[in-house]
Design brief:
Blueprint lengths: L1 H13 L6 H15 L4 H6 L1 H22 L2 H12 L5 H14 L7 H17 L6 H11 L14 H6 L5 H30 L1
Helix pairs in contact: 1-2, 5-7, 6-7, 6-8, 7-8
Amino acid sequence: MAGIAVGALTLWIGGGSLFDATTVAMLALSVMLLVGVISWSDLLSNKQAWNVLVWFGTLVALADGLSRVGFLKWFAGKAAASLAGLSPLGFVVGLVVLFFLVHYMFASLTAHVTALLPIFLSAALAVAGVPMKMFAFLLCSSLGLMGIITPYATGPSPIYYGSGYVKPREFWLLGLVFGAIYLAVFLGVGVPYLLALQ
């Protein structure tokens, strides 16, 4: 098992140009089956892992599809245009809130950042008087709060959700409540603090 783990880590770190990360994971799983670290029945009996795999894979593919057809760029552009009448500070706060809420459509923080961060930064550049350093910092800092809002918001979320300790309705409700609290505190403390630093 240790040899398989070291081999997989080596391929993930050093073989990125040769092997896709998913291929390395499937190779490691296949080797574990072949050498008897796990049995086929062990693999099939882990329903929670298969549930997470299907859930997460579907949502990542959906987010990628939305990005490829240009929906996310269109949506972000329309949303930024609707905030155009606000003051530069109001525009910044509005875009940070929108950036946070749009994470409901993403199954990973990486996909969210890759698809939307450049669009939001470009939208802010087009508005005179927007403090870009502060805006970029707020957008990037808000990423740490997004992992709690949905059962698929970040990598560990499906595992917590799949454990069954928190019922589905409660998970969504608590994600909404704590997401709103965290975002309000983040903006209520962060914006004045960053303004004081300028």
